[in-house]
Amino acid sequence: MTVDVAIIGGSFAGLTAALQLGRASRRVAVFDTGRPRNAASPAAHGVPGWDGRAPGDILAAIRADAAAYPTVQFHDHAVTGLTGTADAFHLTTDGEAVQARRVILACGVTDRLPPIPGLADGWGTWALHCPYCHGYEVKGQPLSILGRGPMAFLMAKLLRSDWSDDVTLIAHEGEFGPEAEGEAAALGVRLIRSPVQRAETLATGARLLLADGTSLLTAGLFLHADTSFAAPFVADLGLATAQGPTGPYVKVGAFNATSRAGIFAAGDITRPAGILTPALADGAITGTAAHQSLLWPDRFPPLQEG
Ligand SMILES: Cc1cc2nc3c(=O)[nH]c(=O)nc-3n(C[C@H](O)[C@H](O)[C@H](O)COP(=O)(O)OP(=O)(O)OC[C@H]3O[C@@H](n4cnc5c(N)ncnc54)[C@H](O)[C@@H]3O)c2cc1C
Questions:
Q1: I need a surface site. Which of 59, 123, 197, 259 has the fewest CB within 10 A?
Q2: Are 5 and 291 in contact (CB under 8 A)?
Q3: What is the whole-number distance in angstroms between the Cα of residue 211 and the centre of ligand 1?
Q4: CA angle, 44 then 45 then 50, to 5°
């Protein structure tokens, strides 16, 4: 199969890119393994026009929009490798191999939760990553934070300021020096120096069982999970990357061009911390940029480092 643009990842960023390219009647192949980052969440928040809707509903609507354009084709399987150069990329997939003139990486990142039994059961409901996405639903209730150095104190200040006056910071990995008690007290936050051994999901929130034998009820446990590229081959492309607070991301320049000519990137894969609306915007930018780069390649140079 030969296409103008191959889009790897058919979620918020990738589908929005496909929509733009479909409207230019370009041949597009969208590859997707069906695991958007927020799949565990019952509702997505902070998305204009869609606030509080299920992520799957939002994606189904965008996909239906893109599918209305006959030059957009969907392939619900993985891309496993990418070689070649602009105008002659070669993609290996779990299905048919593909030749593409341009490539958009919209395959996102994967969260790796701390290995606490019971924690994964609450991911996206009471085990939360972002107060803007899910804080309003637990506001005014007992909230907690699962350690992680300086980021934990930033989260503590956010939560204590505008979401709850009952916030507990847990030094889960034994982090925080002796000054932490004073810093927590200044923020009006309780500090517990005992790791979480297990979590039990309740009708609302969870019970956290701590190593010192005590337990803590929480409506929302905020945490920073480590992240990695969802598609393993991305790390082998030789792209310029940077290290964010939780994991690597692909560096992009103007029009979301990566450091390799002809490869664009969109969504969480390009950000130290991502939310949905910028992923949609990235999709629109990369869709139009990939299209116009077919007409004016020199106007869309790869990112230059340094
Ligand atoms: C628990 C949780 C809840 C969240 N809630 C919110 C919220 O309420 N509001 C908000 O604004 N943001 C929220 N976010 C952030 C939001 O999910 C992301 O910003 C958004 O999903 C990024 O979109 P994306 O298209 O870049 O990547 P993703 O949505 O992660 O999509 C990447 C796609 O690429 C596919 N893929 C991966 N590898 C391959 C491959 N090799 N071949 C083919 N396809 C592949 C995946 O299956 C997936 O469908 C939440 C995040 C988490 C973790």
A1: 197
A2: yes
A3: 33
A4: 80
